[in-house]
Amino acid sequence: AGALAVSAAVVPKALFPPAPAPSPGSAAVETGSRPASTAALAFAAPTDGQVVSDDEVEVVLDLQGGRIVEDTSSELSPDTGHVHLVLDGQLVSMTYGLVQVVDLRGAAHGSHTLQAEYVAADHAPFDPRVTAVVRFETEAR
Questions:
Q1: What angle do CA 34, 20, 7 make, to 5 degrees?
Q2: Residue 109 C-alpha from the chain's centroid
Q3: How many C-alpha atoms does 102 have within 13 Å on its Cβ side?
Q4: How many CA atoms lie within 13 A of 9 on its CB side?
Q5: pLDDT at 92
Q6: pLDDT by 10s per residue, the chain, length 141
Q7: From the CA atom positions of the chain, what is the Rg in Å?
Q8: d(CA 131, CA 119)
Q9: Following CA atoms 47, 100, 74, 86 in sequence, which dihedral angle do they give, to the nearest 10 degrees?
Q10: How far apart, in whole angstroms, are the C-alpha atoms of residue 64 and residue 118?
């Protein structure tokens, strides 16, 4: 029983050591933690598995519990921000609208992943992140 008690006290600390404290002057000390958002984000278009045959795709997002603002600001609120769009790992748009067109002329035909992220008014992510992902196909053009 004594060995079990010692193991219960020592093994978790050995397997999961505490995270080191941030050093003075690090971003974590200067900016503090990121705010959480009240929003939820989803794609209305394109849909998962959709085949796109044009040189562009219309992106329509559904944002619940959040509001798009045009101004960049360090005054952060959990319900105001912008949307960033990432196509196959590359940022393609930092937008202030929920409907837009993404140019596909530089994209190879085949499978693509589009991620939308609702970010705070300073363009940095909320914590936890507010994202939506959709996968679609393009035909040879």
A1: 120
A2: 25
A3: 32
A4: 6
A5: 95
A6: 444 333 334 333 343 333 333 333 333 333 458 999 989 999 999 999 999 999 999 999 999 999 999 889 999 999 999 999 999 999 999 988 899 999 999 999 999 999 999 999 999 999 999 999 999 999 876
A7: 21
A8: 9
A9: 50
A10: 11
pTM of the model as a whole: 0.75
Which candidate, 48, 43, 139, 141, places its Cα nearest to that of 100?
43
Q: Tokens for 123? A: 């363009």
* Among the listed residues 141, 113, 135, the one whose alpha carbon sits nearest the alpha carbon of residue 53: 141
Strand partners, 89: none
Strands 90-95 and 56-64: what pairing?
A: unpaired
pLDDT computed for residue 37 by the predictor: 95
Asked if residue 114 lies in contact with residue 46, where contact means CB atoms within 8 angstroms, the answer is yes
- Specify which residues 84 forms β-bridges with: 94, 117
Give kind and range of the element (H or E) at residue 102. strand 99-103
Residue 74 DSSP label: S
